What we know:
Structural class: alpha+beta
Order of helices and strands: EEHEEEEHEEHEEHEEHEEEHEEEEEE
Main location: nucleus
Helix content: 10-25%
Strand content: 15-25%
Number of strands: 21
Subcellular location: Nucleus
EC number: 2.1.1.364
CATH topology of the domain at 188-296: Herpes Virus-1
Strand order of the largest sheet: 16-17-18-19-20-21
CATH superfamily of the domain at 188-296: Zinc/RING finger domain, C3HC4 (zinc finger)
Catalytic activity: L-lysyl(4)-[histone H3] + S-adenosyl-L-methionine = N(6)-methyl-L-lysyl(4)-[histone H3] + S-adenosyl-L-homocysteine + H(+)
Enzyme class: transferase
Shape: flat
Amino acid sequence: xxxxxxxxxxxxxxxxxxxxxxxxxxxxxxxxxxxxxxxxxxxxxxxxxxxxxxxxxxxxxxxxxxxxxxxxxxxxxxxxxxxxxxxxxxxxxxxxxxxxxxxxxxxxxxxxxxxxxxxxxxxxxxxxxxxxxxxxxxxxxxxxxxxxxxxxxxxxxxxxxxxxxxxxxxxxxxxxxxxxxxxxxxxxxxxxxxxxxxxxxxxxxxxxxxxxxxxxxxxxxxxxxxxxxxxxxxxxxxxxxxxxxxxxxxxxxxxxxxxxxxxxxxxxxxxxxxxxxxxxxxxxxxxxxxxxxxxxxxxxxxxxxxxxxxxxxxxxxxxxxxxxxxxxxxxxxxxxxxxxxxxxxxxxxxxxxxxxxxxxxxxxxxxxxxxxxxxxxxxxxxxxxxxxxxxxxxxxxxxx
Length: 400
């Protein structure tokens, strides 16, 4: 048997048990290696080494001619680390076992780990992030706001407040509910208790005019006349905007006049479709938004008196944070003691007010105020109603 090992001088060393036995007995020469294919080389040289084990004969093998390297081949896929890659040779050839040493990983914080990134690593270590937007061919309609809101509502990813309750206030002229468009009927103005009118519905009535301070005069007069007039467009009562052509009886609601394509002018006049000029007019008004301060002129004293004198009140009278419940009464024998130079103190008066709490900062509670009689004199009572606490009653002989 023959064993083959690699030496640093690229030579093969042959170990033969038979030759080693002959050297120990007969001191004969070691048989030479098989004849090299190259006959031009010098004869083989014998080198003898001795160690503690035995005497070895070392023969230098002839060097092979250098061959031209073949063209570059595709990269070789090596097996994973820590595994032996066994290469099987053809018959009559040597079997060689190659072990691949694992590549040492860079220690965090070392000099090799701190090398600056270079473009030579592109495709291997890092890649650029690119965004590509593909627009489909053909007609693409982006989703609208309502579709997006509906989709988000199904997902349940948004928090929305409760929807605002529907506005049931109705205009006395055009009979439409809620505030109108700014470039249309506009906002609602209070005319009387639970009576509302659109700003432009009242402003464009024939009898109504506007003062320098923004007060609308004769709104109630226009309303009484409108209850008997029928609109030429919708055939409903409440029409107050008439055509300014002489002897023309066409009359409309303000909203119906816009739908009927009547012509409005800057001097607050209107012409119906039968009498309006053809084409455009320099004095024509096409924008109806009113951003100035406008209010309905009314007698508030008479309005409050009518509210108080009603027997059964179906409405709540509120001024700011003060809610009025009952006005009370004064008998003739009480007039002397139940008034001052600035106020009256009727017995049975009751109102409630929402005001800041006496116990907690930044919290409001309800104060129920009333006037009672005690020993012929007024007694002012305030009941503090606050959630989580018992009602606190405060009394005194003066309002302060």
